[in-house]
Structure formats: structure tokens, C-alpha cells
């Protein structure tokens, strides 16, 4: 079974803090993604990576950065957390070839106070 | 601009009846479509997919229909069960990119 593991289920951080969300997958997938889910807005792509050290901006990259130093690990960084970044963050991975599904982690509920 | 749209935010259905969830897309380059189910405080789980070379795919109680000319897909759940109560997202991808584009979700409630 594919497993995508996010380091925390719940996080509470203060405004202005630097926040790291970690994601690890164990199926040697080429692609990894970070989404945020907000009520009424669905899943919005923040960043994705199709290879080690490669990254591409998604629809809402502002205020975020990412790091992929190893194939299995994809980190999302909030450089200076703000209250409008309170959200559910979802990591996913998929194989690099076409017509395949993405597998999601359990999500991290981040609250910025 | 939302390329994948789910225009019904919520749907209520009696147990045992059919649930029909709808999804529309605008990008004619999309060639692979997926449905995910999500419970609160959990990540989405993959349900069923369909390639653009087909118009129907079935897996147990779940069937996805694709109408390429209308740029429309639907998920049918028959019979509906209380455990099906969740938010359902449709998603699409194309052979020109690695991204998945998600709709805004439909919250399904199956009433016992």
C-alpha cells in the first residue's frame, strides 16, 4: 500500500513564525504536491515537484516555499506565518507517468494565532 | 479561473437510493478524470477514475460517466449507504502536465 505521511496532524503557530510541514512517501513516486483545502474553495495547489530539487508553482504559491532534497520527502515552508494561512494542508504523491492517481496524506490542520 | 467545477455544494439522499454527483470542466486537454472521497480531518482517498477514451467505468457500487462533448462527468453511487456521507471531489489531469485540477467538492449526506 502507498503511504504518504505528514509529520503532524494538528499544529498551532504564532503569527510571524517560520513553519515547516514535512511529507514523506514510501512508493518511490516522482511527483509530489502540496495543497490547501478551505471551505468552499476545494483543493488549491500551492507547489508541486516532479523530481528531486525541481519545483513548480501552483495556483497559490505566495507566502510559501518548498524543498525537495530527497525523492521521498517534500517540505512546505511558511516563511512568516499569517492568520490567513490557517487551513488544512494536504500532501500528495503520484507516479511520473500519465493517467495515474495521486495518493494523499492524512492532512495537517494548521492554526495561526 | 476554476477549470474543474462542482456546482452543487451539497446533496442529501435517502439510504438505498442513487446518489448522482456532477462535475464540469473547461479544458479540452484534460484526458484523465478522478473522483476522491474525503472525511473530515482526513486526507482524500481515491475512489474511481476514467480515461477520456472511455465513457463509463464501474467499480462495485460506484460508476463514473464521461460526456466529452459536454465536458461533463458524473459519479453514481448505487445503492447509497450512510458510510458514503463525505465530501466528494472530482479532479482532472492532462497528458501535457503533471498537475491535478480539483473541483470545490460536493458534500453528500446519506440519510438512514
Estimated radius of gyration of chain B? 13 Å
Distance from N terminus to C terminus of chain A (CA atoms, Å) equals 37 Å
Question: Helical segment tally of chain B?
Answer: 0
Mean pLDDT over the full residue set of chain B: 94
User: Which chains have the largest interface?
Assistant: A-B, 28 and 26 residues
Estimate the helix proportion of chain B, in percent.
under 10%
In terms of per-residue confidence, which ranges of chain B show pLDDT below 50 for 5 or more consecutive residues? Answer: none
- The total count of helices of chain A amounts to 0
The N- to C-terminal Cα distance of chain B equals 38 Å
The general outline of chain A is globular
Give helix and strand order of chain A, one letter per element, not per position. Answer: EEEEEEEEEEE
Question: Can you summarize the main beta sheet of chain A?
Answer: 7 strands, mixed
Please tell me about this protein's structure.
The complex is a heterodimer of chains A (113) and B (112). The mean pLDDT of chain A is 93. In chain A, the strands form 2 sheets. In chain A, strands 2, 4, 5, 6, 9, 10 and 11 form a 7-stranded mixed sheet that branches. Chain A has 113 residues and is mainly β. The termini of chain A are far apart. Chain A contains no helices and 11 strands. Chain A has strands spanning 4-6, 10-13, 19-25, 31-38, 42-51, 54-57, 64-70, 73-78, 87-94, 103-104, 108-112. In chain A, β4 and β5 (42-51) form a beta hairpin. Helix content of chain A is 0%, strand content 57%. Chain B has 112 residues and is mainly beta. Chain B is 0% helix and 56% strand. Chain B contains no helices and 11 strands. The radius of gyration of chain B is 13 Å and the shape is globular. The mean pLDDT of chain B is 94. The A-B interface holds A 4, 9, 31, 33, 35, 40-45, 48, 50, 58, 90, 92, 94, 96, 98-99, 101-107, 109 and B 6, 9, 31-32, 34, 36, 41-46, 49, 51, 89, 91, 93, 95, 98-105.
Amino acid at each position: 500500500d502507498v503511504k504518504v505521511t505528514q509529520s503532524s496532524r494538528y499544529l498551532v503557530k504564532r503569527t510571524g513564525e517560520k513553519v515547516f510541514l514535512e511529507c514523506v512517501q514510501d512508493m518511490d513516486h516522482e511527483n509530489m504536491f502540496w495543497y490547501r483545502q478551505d471551505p468552499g474553495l476545494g483543493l488549491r495547489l500551492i507547489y508541486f515537484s516532479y523530481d528531486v530539487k525541481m519545483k513548480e508553482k501552483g495556483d497559490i504559491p505566495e507566502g510559501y516555499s518548498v524543498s525537495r532534497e530527497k525523492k521521498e520527502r517534500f517540505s512546505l515552508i511558511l516563511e512568516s506565518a499569517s492568520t490567513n494561512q490557517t487551513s488544512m494542508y494536504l500532501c500528495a504523491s503520484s507516479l511520473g507517468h500519465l493517467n495515474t492517481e495521486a495518493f494523499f496524506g492524512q492532512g495537517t490542520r494548521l492554526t495561526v494565532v | 479561473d476554476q477549470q474543474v467545477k462542482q456546482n452543487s455544494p451539497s446533496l442529501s439522499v435517502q439510504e438505498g437510493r442513487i446518489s448522482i454527483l456532477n462535475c464540469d470542466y473547461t479544458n479540452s486537454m484534460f484526458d484523465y478524470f478522478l473522483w476522491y472521497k474525503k472525511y473530515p480531518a482526513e486526507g482524500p482517498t481515491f475512489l474511481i477514475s476514467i480515461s477520456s477514451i472511455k465513457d463509463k467505468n464501474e467499480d462495485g457500487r460506484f460508476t463514473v460517466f464521461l460526456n466529452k462533448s459536454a465536458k461533463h462527468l458524473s459519479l453514481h453511487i448505487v445503492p447509497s449507504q450512510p458510510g458514503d456521507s463525505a465530501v466528494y471531489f472530482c479532479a482532472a489531469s492532462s497528458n501535457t502536465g503533471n498537475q491535478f485540477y480539483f473541483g470545490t467538492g460536493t458534500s453528500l449526506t446519506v440519510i438512514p
